[in-house]
Write a structure and sequence with these properties.
heterodimer, A: mainly beta, 4-stranded antiparallel beta sheet, B: mainly beta, 7-stranded mixed beta sheet, 11 strands, 0% helix, globular
């Protein structure tokens, strides 16, 4: 059962903000939202995670709706190096497994 | 750098051969994970180690797959009598935390092609 739904692909202009949506309508109260990305021929890279509050780090911002049924990953100033597959994952705090879906293929264009 | 390293990066095997894939986790990381990634799909969990103990091997697809981490550091994923369906990228990840919600740091993967 897929816990998250993401668009299969999206394009973004270099220098602009990239907003990546994720639906997780069946999320439980103790499940976190994680984002990873995978650049071609590399392993997945952790970006950010959150429970219910919005989070920001040096890579991105995570906006979680009040009902927690969806979230948006924001890359504030996309660069060509941000071209990758982005995975939205919901994960119980005590669960060590990461369950990746198909992700969103983001292409940043000059 | 001090990231997770994997070797070899590429491996071509003839059907029926045995292969061994190595993972060097980040020094001091307690948890180690193996994932399998088929072409065009997201990674799928194979197995989990906490130090030298293999606590979960529920994702291993068959008894031809075997993983070990004898000294709680380097890990080896072995596939016996390889089949064409074993062709995939095998990813290793490590985490400082004991299992749970710690950030997993991934290596570059080993791309296995079985002919």
């Amino acid at each position: 059962d897929a816990k998250t739904t993401q668009p299969p692909s999206m394009d973004c202009a270099e220098g602009r903000a990239a907003n990546l949506p994720c639906n997780h309508s069946t999320i439980s109260g103790n499940e976190y939202v994680y984002w990873y990305r995978q650049i071609h021929s590399q392993g997945p890279q952790y970006i950010i995670h959150g429970l219910k509050n919005n989070e920001t780090n040096e890579m991105a911002s995570l906006i979680i709706t009040e009902d927690r049924k969806s979230s948006t990953l924001i890359l504030p100033h996309a660069t060509l190096r941000d071209t990758a597959v982005y995975y939205c994952i919901v994960r119980v705090g005590g669960d060590y497994k990461l369950s990746f879906g198909a992700g969103t293929t983001v292409t940043v264009r000059a | 750098g001090a990231g997770v390293s994997q070797s070899p990066r590429y491996k071509v095997a003839k059907r029926g051969q045995d292969v061994a894939l190595r993972c060097d986790p980040i020094s001091g990381h307690v948890s180690l994970f193996w994932y399998q990634q088929a072409l065009g799909q997201g990674p799928e969990f194979l197995t989990y180690f906490q130090n030298e103990a293999q606590l979960d091997k529920s994702g291993l697809p068959s008894d031809r797959f075997f993983a070990e981490r004898p000294e709680g550091s380097v890990s080896t994923l072995k596939i016996q009598r390889t089949q064409q369906e074993d062709s995939a990228v095998y990813l290793c990840a490590s985490s400082l935390a004991y299992g749970t919600a710690g950030t997993q740091y991934f290596g570059p993967g080993t791309r296995l092609l079985v002919l």
